[in-house]
Amino acid sequence: GQTDPDPSTPSGKGDVNGDGVVNLQDAIFLLNALTAGENLSAEVADINGDGMVTLQDAIGLLNQITGGTG
To answer: Which of 24, 38, 62, 67 has the fewest CB atoms nearer than 10 Å to its CB?
Structure first.
């Protein structure tokens, strides 16, 4: 059967490295990709929904993972 999506990611965003789990590895992957100038899918990496993948999304993902409020 299908499993319910992670309640901490209602939009389905955040699994930047595609391993099926949203965790610190995704934030590291996002930061590395941003630093390298790589293009990432906004579908999973645009955490704040502004249409762009930027450092703000990495910060938002870190806050999401750690339960911070930003």
So the answer is: 67
- Dihedral (Cα; 70, 67, 57, 39), 10-degree rounding: 160
- Joined together, the tokens standing for residue 40 give 């990432």
pLDDT at position 60 over 90: yes
Residue pointed to by tokens 């941003």: 34
Interior/surface letters 7-26, b for 16+ CB within 10 angstroms, e for the rest? eebeeebbbbbeeeebeeeb
CA distance 5 to 51: 22
Instruction: Find out whether 9 and 15 touch, Cβ atoms under 8 Å.
Output: yes
